[in-house]
Amino acid sequence: MTKDLDTEGRVLEAAKRVFIRKGYAGARMQEIADEAGINKGLLHYYFKSKDNLFSAIFEQAFREMVPRQNELFESDLPLFIKLEQFVERYLDFFPNTPTCRLSCSSNSSATRRLFSKGFRAWT
Q1: Predicted TM-score of the model (pTM)
Q2: How many Å apart are CA 61 and CA 43, to the nearest integer?
Q3: Helix, strand, or coil (residue 39)
């Protein structure tokens, strides 16, 4: 069986909505499956656990941010301008990225652990 990218994308988008609505601790795999329009077994085929699903969403967000930051550091701009723009982009990223906003605002040790793990992987 091969994984369908459309289904995987639908699952990721559905999971983002559920995580934002319910928080990490309150989100249930069945609710995410229902939101994505698939059965729970298929959800577990794509993502073995809630941790894996949350990590995939987080990694997707960082994949969008990191190249922009790398381009900045490789540019010919003066160092002060690079630092200023880095901070602006970084601070803009979190409030505009629901999964990161959820990670930062959650009191859950699981979300803090996943956030830390994801951040280390992409820096």
Answers
A1: 0.65
A2: 20
A3: coil
- The whole-angstrom separation of Cα 95 and Cα 91 is 7
Contacts of 45 (CB under 8 A, 6+ apart): 1, 3
pLDDT digits (tens, 9 = 90+) for 78-87: 999 999 998 8
pLDDT tens across 24-66, in order? Answer: 889 999 999 999 999 999 999 999 999 999 888 888 888 888 8
Neighbour tally for 114: CB within 10 Å = 23
Instruction: Output the DSSP codes for 48-97.
Output: SSHHHHHHHHHHHHHHHHHHHHHHHHHS-S-HHHHHHHHHHHHHHHTTT-
Q: How far is CA 48 from each of CA 42, 44, 65, 84, rounded to the nearest angstrom?
A: 10, 5, 26, 40
